[in-house]
Write a structure and sequence with these properties.
Length: 257
């Protein structure tokens, strides 16, 4: 199969590349452009078009978005303009790129990539991917099947929304040591574990590249905790995978075209 294009749209950057879905890796070096200030609908759509056009690509595109996504429509807006709420992300990006774009929640896409090609491969039972960056994203799987649009970064811990204290942005904002942050992470994981009793927890997002700095300080969590294998490429790979599995015939047409 020829590559399907994957996009990872975030509050700070918009990344994209064609993806080899047989090997689970990028088929070309990714391009990253800065997300336009304010992340308004028209501005983001224009930037996405720049990324895709840079590859001369026409075909099926999968795109992550930092929101609850229901049938291609954003129902929330995390770290992007609130004008995205109730906007058809898929249709908007299809119009700007001239491609058929399929939209998916960003953490769900990263989770799909890890479950197919990364550390979650062949793991049965309940698996959670938790991403730690500007906020906390979550993707939940049962025997490899995705439970979409979980928002488990917003669990209440000690009277506060968990991500306000435990996201990587909180560590940076409060200038916490990795050990101090790991204690907060431990508390969050303990609470998560008590609610879901997962078989595996995968830690993703930007912190996944720095596991040696905090993982030794994570305590009193009985679930096996590992860091994501695909790291910053997971969103791009998972978006392309999601699109190809949702529209397999079109993915084949993209390959033959």
């Amino acid at each position: 199969m020829a590559p399907v294009f994957g996009l990872d749209i975030g509050g700070s950057g918009i990344k994209g590349a064609p993806v080899d879905l047989e090997r689970g890796e990028l088929a070309a070096e990714r391009v990253r452009l800065v997300t336009p200030e304010g992340a308004r609908v028209d501005d983001v759509a224009a930037t996405v078009a720049q990324v895709v056009d840079g590859f001369g690509y026409k075909g099926l595109v999968g795109a992550t978005f930092p929101a609850v996504i229901v049938n291609g429509v954003a129902r929330t807006a995390a770290n992007v303009d609130k004008g995205w709420i109730d906007t058809d992300v898929a249709a908007t990006l299809s119009a700007s790129t001239g491609c058929h774009v399929v939209a998916v929640n960003d953490a769900d896409a990263a989770g799909l990539a890890e479950m197919r090609f990364g550390v979650g491969r062949d793991v049965k039972g309940t698996v959670a991917l938790l991403t730690f960056g500007t906020g906390i994203g979550s993707a939940l799987f049962l025997d490899g099947a995705l439970v979409p649009n979980t928002e488990l970064g917003h669990l209440e811990i000690d009277g506060s929304d968990a991500e306000t204290k435990t996201a990587d942005s909180a560590r940076e904002r409060e200038d916490l040591t990795w050990e101090h942050w790991a204690h907060r992470l431990s508390k969050y994981l303990q609470h998560f574990e008590a609610l879901f009793w997962p078989d595996l927890i995968i830690l993703g997002g930007g912190v996944s590249k720095k596991a040696e700095k905090f993982l030794p300080f994570v305590v009193d969590v009985r679930t096996k905790v590992v860091t994501a294998q695909l790291q910053n490429e997971a969103g791009i790979i998972g978006a392309a995978l999601y699109a190809a599995e949702l529209h397999p015939t079109e993915a084949e047409r993209t390959a033959s075209g």
